[in-house]
Structure formats: structure tokens, C-alpha cells
Inverse folding.
């Protein structure tokens, strides 16, 4: 398998080659071509997970819509439907002799226009433009064709039309795309950290996020003046129009006159207070944890791990921790890893998984690099699209929706899969960032350096005591003594906190060097990240990686109807001394292996702790919320796939079956109302996969209203479908 | 039925259309080879667009800082010739020039030049010196008349602007100064500037006395502020037909914020309305872009700054404060990504509203440049107006150059109907990591976007010769497009004095108004597009004006005291209608837009008159519908 890593030139060549080859062989669909073109554009853009989740969703929805209207299957998402205050008008399209070719043309033009617009300010725009231009050329399309009047019968015009509508939609969806996605109200409350200096600036509040200043200039008085401080990315993303998130999922809070929308509010993270001992302990434990795990990034410390699914992974959601004591049991703070013990057998082969024993320091570094979301990465939403493509290509994989029924053609499988996954990633971004924007929670680089500056909180009989200091732990966190090599020439560091940790970029001159692990002053602590990136520019709580990955793993599981990767195993090969980017390594080949989709997701979550940018308190709520988001997004997407005969393109009134109350409590009676002057409908209650649960008799005597006494249903989503000989009306019903 | 699609057959044929839709750096092929040579640090670099030889091709004067300034003659074939040496600018040698503006100060039909100077270097020391007025004597010659015109005060000046504040037809002059005293070096202490030896300066307002002399009248007109000035800009913010003044101040939080002065013409007085109108921004203001980007008939202002630059939006009423909507409308870009992925603070200087894609709405160019000698690449911004909201348009448009930008101007140098751009860039000093070696002025040719346009050149008689400060209004497709002729704006620069309108695919302009400073109004109906229209103030009735009034509204009650009712039954106008009340001097008292929906719904329009409206005769007119007869009424 070869997804995800940024060997840009090679990937570009490979993609071009694939396009040529697959076009000849007719294997790769246009949906796949354009999805890969978007992933390439994302790799060449700024690391903006929120923005790219939205890009992936919008392009996927465009492709799905085009496929749906040309193939006359399912119900389109954008076309003719209101989202927020925007409706993309749709007058229907003419029939085509070859609807497949027509939809390929339309998808290509829509994708080309949308990518061109969305990446016009990208640092890699030249590469991106060159790639999509050549993709159009290879397909034989005239990319200068700009007509949007699709009633002329040209599917290219339809593609252009849909792209320009989605562009206009995107300029009012709450993302502030017009203003380069900047926040309108959020202001960081801590002054920035100057990365050229050790330690941390005087903080307004050590619980809150702190911007990082990369570039400074020094005036003649010696003042450092910030010149490059990335702002909080997406602090107000909670106000975006979502895919499947509901109003009932939102709690609204106010911070400094700014209204925050928080989806699936997990409550506040661990905070430092002047007096709350318990919460202080949780804060200190969480951020020390990140520093401790940083000490695992040494491949020469002699620790060897079996990283195969036979020895790690296989954690159930029910096992996720809830309080500090649980966290202490779930994670191993000093040695690394979690409670996952792996699988005794591969259910596909019936054989045990092959052990793979590698240095812990290689595994952890490869993991941190593989899931990095910094420069040159597809960001987590993009990673999961690559995983989807990998699964789709797998020889053991059958393209069955939910693993049932007939095998779908490639195009149908891909547009439905992209649409579902895109919707889930968009919702995951909105949810996670709604929480980030509200709680505005500190990152490890700030917290670790802050605690180090405060001193130690182990004992007030030892030097340098402060209740916000680190807990001393022999071999991991200690005080600098007078004889210590870190004491400094004037003994200026004596009494400070030192930590055993990855040493940071001061020890890496070229990419042939290795940072290594040793004692360093806590004030110099760095996360294992690129020096130009250090820590993503937004608050930590909750982890975007955990939310995205768990939601995506849930979607993959539901889409394929299988917990396991095809064949019970997915692999990624990291080559010896090639794979790591900013330092040398790994010292041996490392294969990342996952049995179930959630195993990949869980490893992704852990990678952020080793990467030094999330404590466990950011991670676990992200996983729990990701589960919910993934599940809901899948159900929501699936409802679109129900075949609905679209009303003919005319000015006919919108016919709707009305159901209320909705949501309904189990045991409550349901009222169903058909529009007047309609008859001949058969009404049924269906499960979301379309199975008929109950036929609902329509008494002619009471006109168009039907009251159904207690339905006796379990909580969940159902469909009320009213069918006539020429029409099908569908409404979703939520039973609580 | 779709069978063999034509577009597949038309493979690659029209390649190149996309490639054309952008700006091309034509500096070299146009023969421009000039850079602003910075002295010690930070300051300077502007340009003035002028047609000094009246050949119909606009020329440009570019300051040179410590180096020589340059007057580039437009040869009319896409190239320019530097004629500085023979033109008579010898006195500029050895002084450190800053900005430049042009106007016909003596009304002899030739545009003259005013050039600001921050200092001269005498014996290695930095000393204040006078600015320069160069009178155009024809045949490509200019004569230094600074002293005889009374403009030889010793100052540390930055930017200046021309505008006729007393409606006598002669351009008056505002000169903005930075320091009153200065004893240090300009590359020192850039972040902290107000110390005893570098006190903020008084600015200077000069009345043009009959074209032969300037008289300093700052105190008479009520100016007593001091500030770190980067220029004054004359503009009619309140639509009352006279020139108000915006004062641009750097380090507004340490000295004086920006100022807005309302001209109380006919009184010889300006009133400081900065606070009341929301102009008192305590920021590092560098320049101003002027334009009615939302087409509501009132001018809006983009104030360039460090980090986020305010966009001051008129509320359409002269007593309501402007609102800074830069965050909501997408003109705030406090951080920029360099092409190597770093994020740096934006430092903006030049600012120009112009319709680069000729789609009727005004877009915005912002010239960025790092402080100098501290160098960070700081790419320029081009922001496209998208339904009244701005979106950043990327490097593929060809304008995201990261040179050390300062002043910027728009003009149509090749007379193809598309506005081109010239950006004054500084040479670098000190150590830097700029990823390129070209630090000079850049000329960008607009390759066109396939839309129609109209240009209007004013020939003033009673008013300023080139119509500086006058308004040109185009009504087309129910939209009202206004342009104010520039007497100096952007950053210490001056745009073309030819009004330019993009007209999308329209093939005619319904009506065109010229509102001269001084009160004259000219109207033209049914104007053809894709032409340069020259309008002479003397020919108040021109052959362009066609027989018009075909219908009229009923107006009641008349006389009235509070409101007017207009019976508009029978009018269909999906694009809406503009209603204006003017007094007998032609000044607009009230202007109101009614949208198409209301017209369809109501048969009567009600116009509420201002409470303090003096009694007398007034006229209601309909600028968007010139065919409807203006109506008189009496206010009791």
C-alpha cells in the first residue's frame, strides 16, 4: 500500500501515469481521478483540516449529485435542496443516450472549476493547476469552456453550473471563505510564545491556548516584534452549515460577548485553579504525560515492541476512560501504549497475526510522522479518503453497500462512499472545532513549559515548589542539581525542572541527524514536529485527529458492513532511513498494521500524544464524539441513497408527507398527513436500509390524516415512505 | 438529445483564453527600469499618473527617494521613455523624494507636478528641506517654481493631495508631514517613534490663489493637529458637492489618529468630524483607497495599515458614522502566507479600488511591503468584489509579487479599456532573505476579461482643468456606478484622472452624469460602450444628449412640509429606481434607492424630507431613469 506520504513529484507522476493507463483500460473512474486531484491539491496547500474537510465534502457532494441526477438514482444533496438559506436551483436535465459519459463530463467540469477556485491562493497552486489542467487535457475536455447554461444540453455546462453554485454557496455557509476563513470575533487571550526564546511568555491563563510566533524582527532597542504569528484556525467553525449535525446537538455558550455553538459538548477539560486540587492534578498528569511519552522517541533505548495486531489494538468503545483513575489504567504513562492486547486470530485467514518486533522508538516516530497533519500532508480527513481508496482497490474487497446486496459498479460505490465520508469529515471538523473554539484549551508546548517554569508540585519541602509545577518522577522529571550538566556556566539553571524527553531541533542540523532522547530543561521542551509547524495553530481540546479518525472508521465499518479491513489486515510500509522527514530514521523497516478500522483510528489518536500535541484528555472525548458523528453522518447519507423518483422538472407544487411529532418518543402516537387531493398512496414504515417494518393503513374516511397508535419501535431512525404508482415520498422519523 | 458533443471535438482550440485572463508583468518590455532607493529606512515611494504632453496616452512620474526620480513618457505603443534628464528636474538631485501628484495649477492646459521630500542629505546629515512644485511649460519641459508659488517651507513631508476646497476652479493643496524635528536615523526604533527628537508634525493646507501662488491657510481653516502624517486625501464623503479631507496618520495610537474634516463650504472652515464619523482610527495608517464598492451611491474607504486594514463603509446617511466592516467583507488579511509557507504580518501601503475585470463592481488592490531594512516577503493582494464581499484572488492572477511595495496607481496605459497597475517598490537595504533579486517598480498590464467598458475624461473650465474631485456617475442596468476624480490617494500617489467603468456585457449606459465640483451637472443619455468619452464643461448641452422625457410621475402634496408622495403607477423597473432631491444650486440634499420589488408592490413612493430642510424650491429627479421628468416642489 502506498498512500499518504508526500513524495510529491513521484505521486504526481504516478497519478498521471495511472490516469493514462486506467483511461485506456477503463478502470479508474473520473470520481477517483478528481478525488485524487483534490488530495494532491490538499497536500500542496496549507495544513488546514477544517477547510479541507469542507473541500472534500463539497467536491464529493458535487460528484454524488451529478451521478444521482444522470443515473436517476437516489436523491441529490445540493441540487434543488435548501441548505441554510441557500438553495441551488435545479430545473432537471435532459435525458442522455449515454448517461454514464454525460455524468463523467459533468463531474470533470464541476471538479475542475471547484478545485481551481478553492486552491487559487494555495502555495502550491502552480502544481495543482498543472495537474488538473493536464487531467482535463488527457480526458480530452476543453477547460476554457465556461458556459453554465446547462439547458443547452451540454453536460460540461451542467458541471460548470454546479461548481459555480457550490462556490456561491460556500461564500455564505459561515466559513468566511471570502475572508480567507479568518475568525470574525475570536481573539486569543494569551500573548504569543516566541519560539526563538526558551520558556513561555507571561500567560494570562495557563488553561488557554497560546499563539506561536515563528518570525520576529528585532528593532534597535532589542525588542522582539512579532512578525509571523499564525492565528487560531477555525475558532468559529462551529457556526458552519453542517451535514447531519442537528440543532439538538448544539449547546450555545457565551465567551466575552462572543456566542459559541458547541456540538456534542463534552464539558470542560482538566484545568489549573488556585484551589481545586483534583483538577490541578488531572491537568498536571495530562501534560506531564505528553512529556513522558516524548521520551519514547529513541530507537536505541533497547525497548522492543510487537506492533502487530496480534499484540496491540482491539480496544472497545466501552473501555474508554471517564475519570482520571480510568485514564491512569487505560494508558501507560511511563512506558507508553494502552490497554489494547490485540487479536488472537485474523478472522479472515483464521490464523494468528504474524508478530512484528521493532524498536519502540522507531514505531513511535513512524506513527507520529505517518499521521502528521502539518505541511505536505493530506490532513486527517484526506488520510481517510486515501484509506477509502485503498480499501476500494483491495483485491479481496467486494463493493457492496453495507456489505449486502449486489456488487455496485465502481462509480456508484465511490460517489456514495466519498459523499458519506465527506459528510462525516465535515461534521467531525465542525464538531471538534466548535469545542476547540469554545474551550480554547492550551497545547502541551505551552502547558509543559509553563509547569516547568512554575517548578515542582511534589513537595513544599523541596526547592522550587509551586502547586502548578510538575510532579517529580525519578528518571523522567527531576530538579537540576549543582553538578548537573544542565546547571549552566553560572549555575543559572540550578533548581529548574529537567525532563527526559526528545531533545528537539537544536540537535538536528541536517535531516541525517537524530534528535534523540536525553535530559533537557523543561523550558526548552519541543513536540516531535517539524520546526516550521511545531504545533497546529488551534486549541487542543478535543483532538481533531481522534474525532476525524473515529468518525471515519465508523463510516468505513458501516459502508463496508465489516469491522475489519479487507483480508483482516491493512499495512503501511515505512522504509529504513527513508520515511522520517525532519530527522533520520527509522533504523529498520517498520510496517504499520491494523486489523479493524478502529485500530487505525486508535493508533492515529496515540500518534498525537507521541507527536507532542495532544494529552489524553484531548484524545478520548474526540474518539467518543467521533463515533457519534460517524454514525449519524452515515445514516443521514444513506437516506439520500433511497431511490426517489424525482418530481418532473416543472413548476408543480412540492408534495410532501408530513409526520409529527418528530422526533417521537416510543409509545407516543404518530400523525401522518398527506397533501390534500392525493390518493392512491401506500404508506409504510421502513428501517433506514429500506426494509419494510410495517404497512400503515390509510383510512379513507378521515381524509388525508392518519393517526398511528403506539408503534412499539426501538429508538433509532426510521423512514416513512409513501408510494404511489408514480411517486415516492420519504420522511425520516426519529424515535427516542 | 446529446449525441456527439461539440466540445470534445473542439479540443485544445481555445487554449489560451484562460492564460489571458490575468495581469502580465511588462515592466521590462515597456522599458521601465526604476527603483525607489530608500534612504536609511522605511519611507517612500509613490507615483503620479498624468498626461503631461496631452497626447492621449497617460504618462507616469515615479519618485526615486535617494536616487533620481523619473518621468516616463508613454510612447503609445506599449513602451515608455525616461525623459527626466531633459525635462528640467535637476533640482531634485540630492534630495530624498517621497510622493508625487499632478494637477494643472495655473490652468494653462498642462498638468504640473508637486513632489514631496522627506529630507535632503547635507554633509551626511539628514535635514528637512522644501517640497517641489514643477510647472509644465510644454514641449516636455518643467520648471521649478516652488519658491515663487510660495511652497518653499522646510518640512519633513510624505504625501500630498490636490483638491479644490473653495470651488473656485483652482486646485488647492494639502501637504502631510511626518516629523517636526528629527535627529536620528530612519532605520532605528521602527516600532517606537514618538520621542523628543522626533516629534509629530503639523500639516499644511494651501489655497491656490488664481493659479499664480499658494497661500498657507491651515490655521484659517481650523487645522491645528500634529501627527505622523502619510498624506491627506480630498474626497466628498457626504455627497454635498464639496471636498472634504481625510488625514492619514501613522502611529495613530502614539500621536494623532486618522482625521476626517468636513468642508463647511461656502464658509472658510473645516470641522473635525473624525470621531462622529468613525474615522478616528488609532492605527499605522499608510494610505487610502476610495470607491463605492457596494454601489449605494456613497463612497467607501479602505485604510491601509499594518496587519488588519479597516474598510470604512458609508451608512448612506451623512450624519451616521462609517462602519469598519473589513472582517465581515473579507478585506482584512492580517497575516500572509509567503510562497514558502511562512506566515508573516501584513504591512499594507498602496490601496486602489478599480474594476479590473470590468464586471461593474470595484475590486481592490493592496500593495504590501515589509519594513525596510527588516525584510520579510510580503506579497500584494488582489481582492475581487463578489456581490459586495471581497475574495482574495490568488497568485495565478499575476499580482502576488512579494517585493517591498509602497505606492500603487491604476491607469490604462495602453488604452485598451482595461485598467493596468503600477507598483512602486523599494530597493532593499541591510541583510535580508528576500528570495529574489528584482526590487524595482513593476508595471502590470491587464490582459482583459472580455467585458465592455467606458472611460470618461473631463475637461474643466470653471472647475479644475482635469475635473479633480468631480463625480462621474454611470447608470446602467439599474445600477449606479460612481467615480470621483483622484487628486492624490493610495500611498503618496495619484491614480489616473480618467474615470473608468467596467460594464460586463452591457452594450450601452442608460445615462451618464458629471457632477462638477462647483455645482455644474451634465447629463448624457444612451451612451455607447468601449469608448473614451471626453466631456467639456463648456458644452453643457452636447449632441450626445437625446430627446428624453417621455413620462412623468405625480407628486403630492405640493407644497409640503414633511414628506413627498410620488405616484409611480405603471413603472416597471426590476433594477430599482434612484430618487434624488436637489436644491437650486444643484446640490444633492437626499438620495434614496428603491428596489424593484417595492416598485412592483407599491404604486406610491414616499420620501421623507429632512427635518431641518430649509424652506424653498427643490427638484426631485431620477438619475437612474433620465427619461422621467424631474419635478419641482416647494418646502414650507
Amino acid at each position: 500500500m502506498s498512500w499518504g506520504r508526500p513524495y510529491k513529484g513521484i505521486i504526481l507522476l504516478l497519478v498521471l501515469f495511472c490516469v493514462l493507463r486506467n483511461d485506456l483500460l477503463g478502470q479508474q473512474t473520473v470520481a477517483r481521478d478528481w478525488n485524487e486531484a483534490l488530495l494532491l491539491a490538499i497536500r500542496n496547500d496549507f495544513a488546514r483540516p477544517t477547510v479541507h474537510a469542507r473541500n472534500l465534502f463539497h467536491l464529493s457532494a458535487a460528484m454524488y449529485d451529478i451521478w444521482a441526477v444522470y443515473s436517476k438514482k437516489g436523491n441529490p444533496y445540493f441540487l434543488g435542496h435548501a441548505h441554510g438559506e441557500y438553495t441551488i436551483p435545479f430545473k432537471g436535465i435532459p435525458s442522455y443516450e449515454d448517461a454514464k459519459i454525460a455524468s463523467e463530463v459533468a463531474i470533470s467540469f464541476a471538479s475542475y472549476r471547484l478545485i481551481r477556485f478553492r486552491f487559487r491562493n494555495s502555495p502550491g497552486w502552480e502544481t495543482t493547476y498543472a495537474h488538473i489542467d493536464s487531467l482535463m487535457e488527457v480526458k480530452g475536455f476543453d477547460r476554457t469552456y465556461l458556459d453554465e447554461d446547462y439547458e443547452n444540453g451540454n453536460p460540461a455546462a451542467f458541471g460548470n453550473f454546479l461548481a459555480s453554485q457550490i462556490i456561491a454557496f460556500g461564500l455564505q455557509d459561515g466559513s468566511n471563505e471570502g475572508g480567507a476563513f479568518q475568525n470574525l470575533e475570536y481573539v486569543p487571550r494569551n500573548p504569543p510564545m516566541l519560539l526563538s526564546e526558551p520558556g513561555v511568555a507571561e500567560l494570562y491563563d495557563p488553561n488557554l491556548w497560546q499563539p506561536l510566533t515563528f518570525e520576529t524582527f528585532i528593532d534597535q532597542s532589542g525588542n522582539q516584534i512579532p512578525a509571523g504569528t499564525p492565528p487560531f484556525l477555525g475558532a468559529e467553525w462551529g457556526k458552519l452549515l453542517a451535514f447531519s449535525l442537528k440543532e439538538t446537538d448544539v449547546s450555545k455558550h457565551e465567551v466575552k460577548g462572543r456566542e459559541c455553538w458547541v456540538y456534542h459538548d463534552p464539558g470542560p477539560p482538566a484545568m489549573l485553579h488556585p484551589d481545586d486540587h483534583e483538577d490541578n492534578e488531572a491537568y498536571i498528569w495530562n501534560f506531564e504525560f505528553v512529556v513522558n511519552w516524548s521520551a519514547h522517541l529513541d530507537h536505541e533505548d533497547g525497548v522492543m515492541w510487537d506492533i502487530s495486531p496480534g499484540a496491540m489494538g482491539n480496544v472497545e468503545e466501552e473501555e474508554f476512560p471517564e475519570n482520571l483513575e480510568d485514564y491512569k489504567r487505560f494508558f501507560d504513562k511511563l512506558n507508553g501504549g494502552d490497554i489494547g492486547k490485540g487479536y488472537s486470530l485474523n478472522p479472515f485467514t483464521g490464523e494468528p497475526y504474524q508478530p512484528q518486533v521493532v524498536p519502540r522508538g522507531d514505531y513511535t516516530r513512524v506513527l507520529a510522522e505517518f499521521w502528521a497533519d502539518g505541511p505536505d500532508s493530506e490532513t486527517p480527513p484526506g488520510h481517510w479518503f486515501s484509506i477509502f481508496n485503498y480499501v476500494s482497490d483491495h483485491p479481496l474487497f467486494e463493493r457492496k453497500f453495507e456489505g449486502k446486496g449486489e456488487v455496485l459498479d465502481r462509480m456508484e460505490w465511490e460517489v456514495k462512499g466519498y459523499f458519506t465520508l465527506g459528510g462525516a469529515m465535515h461534521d467531525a471538523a465542525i464538531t471538534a472545532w466548535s469545542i476547540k473554539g469554545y474551550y480554547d484549551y492550551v497545547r502541551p508546548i505551552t502547558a509543559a513549559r509553563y509547569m516547568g517554569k512554575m517548578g515542582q508540585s511534589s513537595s513544599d519541602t523541596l526547592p522550587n515548589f509551586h502547586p502548578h509545577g510538575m510532579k517529580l518522577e525519578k528518571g523522567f522529571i527531576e530538579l537540576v542539581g549543582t553538578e548537573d550538566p544542565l546547571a549552566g556556566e553560572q549555575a543559572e539553571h540550578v533548581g529548574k525542572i529537567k525532563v527526559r524527553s526528545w531533545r528537539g531541533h537544536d540537535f538536528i542540523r541536517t535531516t541525517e541527524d537524530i534528535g534523540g532522547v536525553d535530559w533537557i530543561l523543561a523550558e526548552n521542551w519541543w513536540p516531535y514536529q517539524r520546526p516550521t509547524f511545531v504545533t497546529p495553530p488551534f486549541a487542543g481540546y478535543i483532538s481533531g485527529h481522534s474525532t476525524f479518525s473515529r468518525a471515519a472508521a465508523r463510516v468505513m465499518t458501516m459502508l463496508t458492513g465489516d469491522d475489519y479491513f479487507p483480508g483482516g489486515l491493512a499495512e503501511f510500509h515505512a522504509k529504513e532511513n527513508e520515511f522520517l522527514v525532519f530527522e533520520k530514521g527509522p533504523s529498520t523497516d517498520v510496517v504499520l498494521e491494523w486489523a479493524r478500522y478502529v485500530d487505525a483510528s486508535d493508533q492515529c489518536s496515540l500518534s498525537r500524544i507521541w507527536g507532542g500535541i495532544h494529552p489524553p484528555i484531548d484524545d478520548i472525548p474526540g474518539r467518543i464524539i467521533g463515533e457519534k458523528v460517524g454514525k449519524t453522518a452515515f445514516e443521514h447519507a444513506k437516506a439520500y441513497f433511497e431511490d426517489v423518483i424525482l418530481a418532473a422538472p416543472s413548476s408543480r407544487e412540492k408534495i410532501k408527507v408530513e409526520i409529527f411529532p418528530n422526533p417521537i418518543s416510543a409509545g407516543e402516537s404518530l400523525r401522518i398527513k398527506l397533501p390534500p387531493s392525493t390518493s392512491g398512496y401506500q404508506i409504510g414504515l421502513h428501517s433506514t436500509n429500506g426494509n419494510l417494518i410495517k404497512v400503515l393503513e390509510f383510512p379513507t374516511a378521515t381524509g388525508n390524516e392518519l393517526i398511528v397508535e403506539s408503534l412499539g419501535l426501538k429508538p433509532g431512525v426510521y423512514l416513512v415512505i409513501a408510494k404511489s404508482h408514480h411517486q415516492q415520498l420519504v420522511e425520516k422519523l426519529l424515535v427516542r | 438529445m446529446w449525441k456527439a458533443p461539440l466540445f470534445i471535438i473542439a479540443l485544445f482550440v481555445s487554449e489560451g483564453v484562460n492564460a489571458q485572463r490575468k495581469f502580465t508583468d511588462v515592466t521590462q518590455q515597456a522599458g521601465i527600469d526604476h527603483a525607489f532607493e530608500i534612504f536609511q529606512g522605511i519611507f517612500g515611494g509613490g507615483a503620479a499618473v498624468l498626461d503631461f504632453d496631452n497626447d492621449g496616452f497617460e504618462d507616469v512620474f515615479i519618485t526615486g527617494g535617494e536616487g533620481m526620480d523619473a518621468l516616463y513618457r508613454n510612447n503609445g505603443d506599449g513602451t515608455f521613455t525616461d525623459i527626466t534628464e531633459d525635462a528640467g528636474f535637476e533640482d531634485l538631485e540630492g534630495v530624498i523624494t517621497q510622493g508625487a501628484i499632478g494637477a494643472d495649477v495655473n490652468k494653462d492646459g498642462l498638468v504640473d507636478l508637486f513632489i514631496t521630500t522627506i529630507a535632503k542629505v547635507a554633509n551626511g546629515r539628514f535635514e528637512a528641506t522644501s517640497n517641489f512644485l514643477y510647472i509644465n511649460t510644454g514641449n516636455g519641459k518643467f520648471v521649478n517654481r516652488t519658491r515663487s508659488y510660495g511652497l518653499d517651507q522646510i518640512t519633513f513631508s510624505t504625501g500630498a493631495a490636490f483638491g479644490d476646497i473653495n470651488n473656485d476652479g483652482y486646485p488647492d493643496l494639502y501637504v502631510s508631514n511626518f516629523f517636526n524635528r528629527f535627529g536620528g536615523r530612519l532605520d532605528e526604533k521602527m516600532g517606537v517613534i514618538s520621542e523628543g527628537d522626533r516629534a509629530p508634525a503639523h500639516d499644511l493646507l494651501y489655497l491656490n490663489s488664481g493659479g499664480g501662488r499658494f497661500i498657507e491657510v491651515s490655521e484659517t481653516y481650523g487645522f491645528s493637529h500634529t501627527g505622523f502624517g502619510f498624506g491627506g486625501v480630498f474626497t466628498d464623503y457626504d455627497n454635498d458637492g464639496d471636498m472634504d479631507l481625510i488625514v492619514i496618520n501613522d502611529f495613530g495610537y502614539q500621536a494623532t489618529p486618522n482625521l476626517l474634516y468636513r468642508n463647511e463650504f461656502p464658509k472658510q472652515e473645516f470641522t473635525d468630524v473624525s470621531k462622529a464619523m468613525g474615522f478616528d482610527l488609532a492605527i499605522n495608517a499608510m494610505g487610502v483607497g476610495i470607491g463605492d464598492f457596494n454601489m449605494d451611491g456613497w463612497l467607501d474607504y479602505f485604510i491601509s495599515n499594518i496587519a488588519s486594514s479597516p474598510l470604512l463603509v458609508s451608512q448612506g446617511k451623512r450624519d451616521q458614522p462609517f462602519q469598519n466592516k473589513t472582517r465581515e467583507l473579507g478585506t482584512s488579511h492580517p497575516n500572509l502566507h509567503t510562497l514558502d509557507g511562512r506566515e508573516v504580518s501584513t504591512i499594507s501601503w498602496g490601496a486602489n479600488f478599480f474594476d479590473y475585470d470590468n464586471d461593474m463592481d470595484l475590486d481592490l488592490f493592496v500593495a504590501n511591503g515589509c519594513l525596510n531594512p527588516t525584510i520579510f516577503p510580503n506579497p500584494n493582494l488582489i481582492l475581487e468584489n463578489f456581490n459586495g464581499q471581497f475574495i482574495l484572488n490568488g497568485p495565478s492572477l499575476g499580482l502576488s509579487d512579494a517585493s517591498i511595495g509602497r505606492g500603487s496607481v491604476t491607469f490604462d496605459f495602453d488604452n485598451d479599456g482595461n485598467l493596468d497597475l503600477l507598483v512602486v517598490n523599494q530597493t532593499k537595504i541591510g541583510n535580508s532573505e528576500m528570495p529574489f533579486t528584482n526590487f524595482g517598480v513593476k508595471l502590470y498590464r491587464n490582459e482583459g476579461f472580455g467585458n465592455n467598458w467606458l472611460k470618461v475624461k473631463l475637461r474643466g473650465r470653471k472647475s479644475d482643468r482635469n475635473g479633480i474631485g468631480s463625480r462621474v456617475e454611470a447608470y446602467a442596468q439599474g445600477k449606479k456606478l460612481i467615480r470621483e476624480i483622484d487628486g492624490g490617494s493610495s500611498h503618496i500617489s495619484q491614480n489616473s484622472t480618467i474615470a473608468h467603468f467596467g460594464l460586463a456585457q452591457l452594450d450601452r449606459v442608460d445615462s451618464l452624469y458629471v457632477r462638477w465640483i462647483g455645482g455644474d451637472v451634465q447629463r448624457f443619455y444612451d451612451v455607447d460602450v468601449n469608448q473614451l468619452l471626453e466631456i467639456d464643461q463648456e458644452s453643457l448641452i452636447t449632441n450626445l444628449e437625446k430627446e428624453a422625457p417621455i413620462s412623468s410621475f405625480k407628486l403630492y402634496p405640493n407644497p409640503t412640509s414633511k414628506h413627498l408622495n410620488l405616484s409611480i403607477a405603471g413603472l416597471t423597473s426590476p433594477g430599482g429606481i434612484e430618487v434624488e432631491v436637489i436644491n437650486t444650486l444643484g446640490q444633492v440634499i437626499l438620495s434614496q434607492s428603491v428596489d424593484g420589488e417595492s416598485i412592483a408592490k407599491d404604486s406610491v413612493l414616499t420620501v421623507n424630507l429632512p427635518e431641518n430642510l430649509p424652506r424653498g424650491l427643490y427638484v426631485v429627479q431620477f438619475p437612474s431613469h433620465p427619461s422621467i421628468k424631474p419635478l419641482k416642489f416647494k418646502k414650507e
Summary: Residues 1-19, 541-550 of chain B have pLDDT under 50 and may be disordered. Helices of chain B lie at 6-9, 17-20, 84-87, 326-329, 596-601. The first helix of chain B runs from residue 6 to 9.
